[in-house]
Amino acid sequence: MRNGYFGIFRSIALVAMIALAFNLLGGVILVILYGVNIKAGSPSVIVLVNSVAQLLMMLGLPIIIARSAHQNYFAAFRLEGMSETRLPVHLLAIPIVTLAQIVGQGLASLWMIGLSQFPDLYSSLQAFQKTIDDMMNGLTTAHTTSEFVILLFGVAVVPAFAEESFFRGFIQTNIERSGKGKSRPIVALLITSVLFAALHASPLEFPGLLAIGLALGWLAYRTCDLRVSALAHAFNNGAIVVMAFLLKDEKTVESLTGTNAMPLSDTLSVLAVSIPLLLGLLYIFQRLTEPIEARGNADRVIAQYELAIMAAEEEIHPL
Questions:
Q1: Which of 302, 227, 253, 21 is nearest to 142 (CA)?
Q2: What is the pLDDT of residues 80-129, one digit of tens each?
Q3: Contact 244, 140 (CB under 8 A)
Q4: Against a cut of 0.85, is the pTM above it?
Q5: Coil, strand, or helix at residue 77?
Q6: Under a CB-based contact definition with an 8 Å cutoff, are residues 206 and 128 in contact?
């Protein structure tokens, strides 16, 4: 550890360990409930099991790790800016993540168009992605009001708490504050976003997930308030569940949860419109969050830690 925080390689190892624990726990519970025929399970039950595993592994376990490392919870989970974050900042996060989703879809489409130049590889990735999409389709489509409430809780609310606490809170903060001499927010943002996208195991949607991860990470960094990215994350996921429930059209639901490349001209048009709009909103967000002082805490902690190390060394080796 450096400055009391986990560095890049330890943070990556923690992501791998917790992801494995999350999948193992969820898988074991589902096997106990349904045996090997998990696909026959109720979507509501599967979502609830996934929620329990996610809360325990992505929220509970990082809290225990932070406690054992004697980290301040408000710092480790990026909550130091709560008192400084105004309501307009929270509200602006919603259109930002929506536009990031649109930009991500355009980037994913370009990614698929490029991969299609390698037919064998693309065909294999498409088959794997279809399995993921079919699963997501079943887990985001509610047929009754009670099922809708459960899916909204498990798909929108729980990930907003668990994934944001884990990625934008614990992992991004640890990498940022483990810098030598000063914090490294950009490095932390990039690495955390790549890990976030990779953990979703959607090869054809990787650029889109990366775009969303970068947007959420930037929201959390600029505010030092995890509630901002959590609200945006919940809205992004919840919108899919709500639209799938209200529209009840199979083709529309497939378009929401499926992965298909748009024609190149349409892809470029989407990106040409959405990227400037996203950059404009990010600029406004930048201006609104400029007064927040909590961002400086990372560098202040590092400076204090290094002063303490120097003082300890002087006591051991006096001049």
A1: 253
A2: 999 999 999 999 999 999 999 999 999 999 999 999 999 999 999 999 99
A3: yes
A4: yes
A5: coil
A6: no
